[in-house]
Amino acid sequence: MLAVRLALCVHGARAAARTSTRASGLGHARSLSTDTDFSGVKERTLVAVKPDGVQRRLIGDVIKRFEQRGFRLVGLKMLQASDKLLAQHYVSLQKKPFYSSLLYYMTSGPVVAMVWEGHNVVRSSRILVGDTDPAEAAPGTIRGDFSVHISR
Question: Which residues form the Nucleoside diphosphate kinase-like domain (predicted)?
Answer without folding.
Answer: 42-152
